[in-house]
Amino acid sequence: MSGKLSEKTVRETVITAIGEMVGDNDLRMIAGLLAGVYLLCIALGLLAGFPIGGIVNTLRAVTVFAAGYGMLVLALNLHWGYTGLFNIGVAGFMAIGTYVTAILSSPPTMMPGPGLGLPVPIAILGGMVATAIAGLLTALPALKMRADYLAIVTVALSEIIRLSIKSQSLAEFTLAGRTLGTGGGRGIRYPAPGSIGGAVTETVPGMATLAEAAAAVGINTPVFTGLIYMFILVATVAIFYSIIVRIGSSPFGRVLKAIREDELVASSLGKNTSIYKLKIFAFGCALMGLGGYLWLGRSGFVNDLSFRPNITFFIFIALIIGGAGSNTGSILGGIMFSSLLFYVPQFVSQNFSGNASPPGSFAAAIDGAIVPYIITNIGPLRFVGIGVLLIYLIQRRPDGILGHRKEDAAAVNLGERPQSQSRVNKEKSS
């Protein structure tokens, strides 16, 4: 024996140590991963020479990015992880929720994209209802066919929606005597949900004083108000999580998971599986519409480029990383994908590529300039990294990080039944 631990042994030892430290505490898992991401971002910010305000803004940005993915991955987990519905039109439902909310809340004089000027809470509710109806109409014919047809229908619908909002015929139109519009290729402007941070700072007692104290240490007002909206997004993720957990632990949720495992068995037990799938598909789409508005639409402006199909596939990748069927895994996957595979490489490219002398070719990079080459081309190379990660997960951990904790359809742990039955038999025999 060489006395050296094998790579497999080291990996198992590290995983075991982390497991013992974290345990099954979901909140501790999420907090630990976020702490690691924050430490990495702080280190990169210090290397880039950022002041304290810049580092805080970096942490705010990465948290907003992670919260946006968290909301949408949780909604997709409700479809794919809980019910087995193959929805690859997430971007389209995000677009419906965002644009309907924008049109309802945008003032009639706003250009581009005049609207009704309704209060923002009513507009948000209208956007969710519109997205739920769109999901219902989409699933109604598709769910009567094989599962792959739902995927085809949703991805086609997503592109139809994107091209429709880009169309000049919908850029400005008249409905019931009111002029409305999507703005076409110019996009649409509306009251920014992200501006709520400024409203809170101005109206809540003590917040203005807190903003002045933050400015004294280098955190300016835009960053401070952005932090407020960041906490609102994090709270929304927590609400999404609690709602989906309650659904999963309810009798309704157990039927959904039974449909995922074997729809024929669920229907043979007297459950109208089509009704269950329609309800959960519509509800999940409503959450996607809200998530799209709060995340991609937070600045008060969106256009068709915000809802390209790659958004859907990124969200699916995050779900695969975390593990379908696990709500905590959905959040972990969203954090890992959005920060480590997307935001951090983008941050490195923007702040460190200017200091690198890129080689003229890949062959020159192999000869000794590999680090400048990677920094300069980290944008496209991150997609290579995503592909490598997916290959690794498929081969070594196809269930994702927490896919092994996928919630069962049964209300009790069926693994304990044989032991309980054997105990009963022993008592009877004695």
Characterization of this structure:
The protein has one domain. 70% of the residues lie in helices and 2% in strands. The chain has helices at residues 7-22, 26-47, 52-83, 90-105, 120-142, 147-166, 196-203, 207-216, 221-249, 251-261, 263-268, 273-295, 310-322, 327-352, 362-376, 378-396, 417-429, and strands at residues 173-175, 178-180, 188-189, 301-302. A two-stranded antiparallel ribbon has the order 1-2. A two-stranded antiparallel sheet has the order 3-4.
* Quaternary form: single chain
The coarse overall form would be globular
Written as H for each helix and E for each strand, in order along the chain, the element string is HHHHHHEEEHHHHHHEHHHHH
Which value, in Å, is the CA radius of gyration? 24 Å
The structural domain count equals 1
Q: Uncertain regions: pLDDT < 50 for 5+ in a row?
A: none
Arithmetic mean pLDDT: 85
Total helices: the number is 17
Largest pleated sheet = 2 strands, antiparallel
Count the beta strands. Answer: 4
Share in helix? over 70%
**Fraction in beta strands:** under 5%
Strand-pairing-aware structural class? mainly alpha
Which helices and strands, and how do they pair?
Elements: H1 7-22, H2 26-47, H3 52-83, H4 90-105, H5 120-142, H6 147-166, E1 173-175, E2 178-180, E3 188-189, H7 196-203, H8 207-216, H9 221-249, H10 251-261, H11 263-268, H12 273-295, E4 301-302, H13 310-322, H14 327-352, H15 362-376, H16 378-396, H17 417-429
Helix pairs in contact: 2-3, 2-14, 3-9, 3-10, 3-12, 3-13, 3-14, 4-5, 4-6, 4-12, 5-12, 7-9, 9-10, 10-12, 13-14, 14-16
